[in-house]
């Protein structure tokens, strides 16, 4: 694991999954990564999304999360240092999560549909 994380610091391109956080449902709780209580704590703190288990608010500020402390993985600093970090995202419900990820430097390249793109422009 250490070798993989060390190599991650030197990648030039990363394809990442971007999750939007919704108070009503969560794949993080469904999969057992977070308890419902932990998930509520994160959303109440203002989290709108996560990339590689790094939670952030709509301004792109990283938030402390119980999940971050339990996982061994890529950090926000590592993601921010990768020259090209790409996410493929669709759906207006992901707009706030996308904007937060861009503002926080977690992604810098986006592939999306026209409806989502319009929503992003309207909220930028």
Q: Work out the helix count.
A: 7
Summed over residues and divided by their number, the pLDDT gives a mean of 90
The helicity comes to: 40-55%
Q: How many structural domains can be distinguished in the coordinates?
A: 1
For the biggest β-sheet, the strand order reads: 1-5-6
Q: Give me the Rg, rounded.
A: 14 Å
Structure report:
The protein has 124 residues and is α/β, with parallel strands linked by helices. The chain has one domain (2-123): Rossmann fold. Helices cover 40% and strands 16% of the residues. The chain is built from 7 helices and 6 strands, in the order H-E-E-H-H-E-E-H-H-E-H-E-H. The strands form 2 sheets. It has a 3-stranded parallel sheet with strand order 1-5-6, with no helix packed on it. Strand 3 and strand 4 (54-56) form a beta hairpin. Helix 6 crosses helix 7 (114-123). The model has no long low-confidence stretch (mean pLDDT 90).
């Amino acid at each position: 694991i250490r070798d993989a994380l060390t190599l991650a610091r030197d990648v030039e391109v990363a394809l990442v999954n971007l999750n939007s956080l919704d108070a009503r449902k969560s794949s993080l709780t469904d999969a057992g990564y977070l308890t419902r209580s932990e998930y509520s704590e994160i959303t109440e703190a203002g989290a709108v999304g996560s990339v590689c288990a790094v939670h952030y608010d709509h301004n792109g500020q990283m938030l402390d999360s119980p999940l971050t402390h339990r996982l061994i993985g890529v950090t926000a600093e590592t993601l921010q240092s990768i020259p090209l970090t790409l996410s493929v995202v669709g759906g207006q419900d992901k707009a706030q999560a996308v904007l937060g990820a861009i503002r926080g430097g977690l992604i810098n390249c986006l592939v999306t549909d026209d409806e989502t793109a319009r929503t992003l422009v309207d909220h930028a």
